[in-house]
Write a structure and sequence with these properties.
- With 439 residues, the chain is an alpha/beta fold.
- The protein is 40% helix and 15% strand.
- The protein contains 16 helices and 13 strands.
- Strand 8 and strand 9 form a beta hairpin.
- The structure holds beta-D-fucopyranose.
Length: 439
Amino acid sequence: MVFDCWPRQFIWGVSTSSYQIEGAAHQDGRGDSVWDVYCRQPGKVANGDTGDVACDHYHRYGEDVALMQDLAIQAYRFSVAWARVLPQGVGAANEPGLAFYDRLIDSLLAANIEPWLCLYHWDLPQTLENLGGWANRDSVAWFAEYAALVARRYGDRVKRFATFNEPSIFALFGYGFGSNAPGVPRDYLKVIHHVNLAHGAAVDTLRALVPASLIGGIHNRQPSLPECDTPEDHAAARLLDDYWNRCFPDPQYLGCYPSSLAQAMEPIQQAGDLARICRPMDWFGVNFYAPVYARADAGSSLGFALGDAPADLPRTAMGWPIQPQALRDELLRVHQCYRLPIYVMENGIATDDKLDEAGRVLDQQRIDYLQAHTQAMRNAMTAGADVRGYFVWSLLDNFEWTLGYTRRFGLVYVDYPTQRRIPKASADWYSKLIQAPRD
Ligand code: FCB
């Protein structure tokens, strides 16, 4: 294996999220999140799967940290389950829940793995959803209270904080299309604005309580491409880009909504809101899997619909097209637009992994995907993008939202009936990449 030469300071990590791996959903005082409730609704999640047990990481975190250490992983991005530390969303904190993240963080530090803590990976406490969730402007204060608790408790050991993971996804799918939790149609524009305000409030809170913190937001970035080469589809792609890629990072990092949304957002805003949203940031987190395609659709309320990628492109087990060059292009676009250090906070692939007779998982397709995408990232860096780190999604196979356990994204295979962890061939590949000579 020959690897590119990477800068000495470049950080190689892995990412996970609370609901997708922790399990212990009803243990030690944890409250319900919107995903617990959504999973209980018949027909919402494949096979009726839930995150009740997931990868049982709540109990097996020690083994998982040891695995990362064996693989020479330098940084671990996880999220805190809000309802584990504040079962009602606000008010009384839950000591056993807080103590779990103490143990996790202490184990990471002992293994010389840097903790990267994300405050929100889609699991709003259900009690707050019952009050209107993100469509309620009070959500800004709820989130700030939660951020303060996390900062006070872990800020002595954690310096890397992210506010939200992929706000466009939970806002659009959770409240717009209703195809993710909470699955309740609510005023989507209000949700966008309140999440943006909550981001700004959390940044201020973290800075005040943890002066050494380095704070970013994590955004799904999917180059928005026209399905057909027509003026109408090009216009649809630009509009989709505004809603999908820009309606969170632009206000957060540039202090304005994209022009196509600005007018619609006006009645929702109060004086000074954009300044509350746009706080000084330290880094920009990019999640990248594939481009997205758009087509004009006069029948849809926004005038566009999701289109199809060209039929001849190779695909992942999610059906997503594989186009590594798009990562290079997107990193350069993010660099030019936001001018901050970039971390790729998620990149990876679902493949049809099976244990072979020798008990191995030979996931060559994942290796090829990661190889091609890290190479594309390297090309973006050569062309000027200031990329400082890369995190694979994911450490473990896990609960893939509405697809339940039917898709495997891990570097490590999880045999769910026994919870045995089996590093795949890609884990070995990634470990070698991390340990290859640096510049
Ligand atoms: C991202 C999510 C993550 C995981 C991957 C496959 O959109 O942030 O939780 O589901 O997709």
